Amino acid sequence: MRANRALADNASREPVQREEYQPIEDADGNGTPDWQDELLGSGVAISTTTSTTSSLISDPAASIGSALIRSLVSGYTSLKQYDSYTPERGEKLASTLAASFIAPDTSTAHTEEELVIDAGSSQERLLLYRSDMRLALAGIVDVEAEPEFTLFARFIQTEDAQWLDKLSQAAKNYRAAEANMLQVNVPAGAVDVHLRVVNATATFAQTLERLVRFANDPLATMALLRTYNESEREFLLAFDALAKFYVEKISSN
What we know:
Mean pLDDT: 79
Structural class: mainly alpha
Strand order of the largest sheet: 1-2
Number of domains: 2
Shape: elongated
Largest sheet: 2 strands, parallel
Order of helices and strands: HHHHEHHHEHH
Number of strands: 2
Oligomer: single chain
Radius of gyration: 22 Å
């Protein structure tokens, strides 16, 4: 993770494009999941085993594992039932299902209407903004703290709930930083980069909260770890963009 931080360069500062979550992928929009299209295209009828998700649950990560298993079992059963199974078809089925195995981002993005904005753009105003942001972010600036991914890894290794407690506290610190940043008086020229940082912090906090919530669900955890990679990368790039904003704007005034 530290190596990834060091590799962030100017060319990659665009917001991370998250994969759009669909419980069962349907690329052509015909109402039939991709894995079923794959089998039907090979002349294989579909087993009666259901592959749809269960009733709606507040957090889709709660059912993502069972949905994947049902689809995998149904696809495998269909192949075997019609004597069409081959290792290649099995691999293609698994790859098609794996493409959608990522926990969706269920957070609601903050908007410009939630911010306190002023038209000031002087160097003094920008310096004050930077100072206010340092105060707002004080709770998550700890060079000696272990990375959040490490905390979760220690829980996986030891099954000691104290590591989940630490991860939960880290999530609370990010939530506090999110709330603090919404109270900062933002110069008009900093609105876009400010919103990016706030939303990246909120999404990362949500990811940590969900890792704690679903820590004992192996499949949900796997899906969330893919989400973690994306949310952490966007979090780092958002702050990288904020640092670049400081350098460009303050030095030009």
